[in-house]
Amino acid sequence: MADVQALRAKVEKLRAEAEKKVNPLAQAEAALAEAEADLAVERKERAKEFDQDTVSTWEAENRRLHGKYDDAIRSFGELLLQEPWFQAFVEARTANRESFHLIQFATNATVRTTGHPIHNPHTPGGVDSPLLSLILQAADLAADGNGADYADELERQREHFISGEA
Asked: What is the pTM of this model?
């Protein structure tokens, strides 16, 4: 019987010691849960604020990007016109356009004088060039990467704001 009482006393003593350790842990866990809930509410409010700001400013940013595009296209055209290979390309395409107009002019004259159109006239060059396709593919590849970088930066700014780092 004495052994049972001693064991009961030991269990009660250990239970009291365990409660001393469990209570601070439970309190810390509760405080953490409350802080995480508060942070989630704050992040939700900051996300709403950021999104409202985006809604009110996106059109101005889009106008800025359109201006940036227009400036880049203008600059591209100016630089392109300075390139000898491009000047030769323009010359070839000009000859193609001139041939088209000459054939149209001659066809009209032939119809007026003989009553019959010109059949299967020869035109120099093709309608388009694989060079343009290659340039477009290279530009699109670079632009896709730049566009993705811009999208990543927008997401980074949003997360930075929501996290309270802005």
From this structure: 0.61
